[in-house]
Design a protein that fits this description.
By secondary structure, this protein is α/β, with parallel strands linked by helices. The chain is built from nine helices and seven strands, in the order H-H-E-H-E-H-H-H-H-E-H-H-E-E-E-E. It has one domain.
Length: about 180
């Protein structure tokens, strides 16, 4: 338990550094950092997120973008949230996933994140990655975000692994290629 807490303390320190806030040392890459953690530590990480996003002593402006909450909000916007269980039961999970993704794609997530981030320099903290799976996959979202947030550092709280070439959610699912981010620790 203390190992994850020590790592989260390093995250708290790192998000306030000029290296992260100004994107220094990234060879002109987009300033996307991944904090990977063991899925079993999810509750500790959620507690940390609650603390750091309300900490008034942090020297940067953190904007939490919980992908699962964004997904639910998007479902409410188009008034389909209550119909989802019936659709899954009658049509099946694969059909539901296809319909939801065609209706609530990366562009919807990007617009909702853009609405939350009002200033250049806001630190975008992507959370809820595991909860939003399979409705949104972080590697496709990050690709969609890149053109809009060149002046915003992005921190992804990721329950899995990232080896600078692939992300592997929950350390179990099939890896997806992604190479434009850097591990924070």
């Amino acid at each position: 338990m203390s190992d994850i807490k020590q790592k989260l303390d390093k995250v708290r320190e790192f998000v306030q550094t000029p290296e992260f806030l100004n994107g220094k040392g990234l060879s002109n890459e987009v300033n996307i950092r991944m904090f990977c953690y063991e899925p079993k530590d999810e509750m500790v990480v959620k507690h940390f997120i609650g603390q750091i996003t309300t900490d008034t002593t942090i020297s940067c402006h953190l904007v939490e973008c919980n992908l699962y909450k964004i997904f639910l909000e998007a479902c409410k916007d188009i008034e389909i949230l209550d119909a989802i269980p019936d659709m899954e039961e009658s049509e099946g999970s694969a059909y539901l996933l296809e319909q939801l993704h065609s209706t609530i794609g990366e562009d919807v997530f990007v617009e909702k994140i853009k609405a939350k981030c009002q200033q250049d320099g806001d630190v975008i903290m992507i959370t809820g990655v595991g909860e939003a799976f399979p409705f949104m996959r972080v590697h496709t979202l990050l690709e969609a975000l890149q053109p809009y947030f060149s002046d915003n550092p992005i921190l992804v709280m990721y329950p899995g692994t990232f080896d600078r070439h692939q992300v592997k959610l929950f350390n179990r699912l099939k890896p997806n290629d992604y190479y434009r981010a850097f591990n924070i620790i």
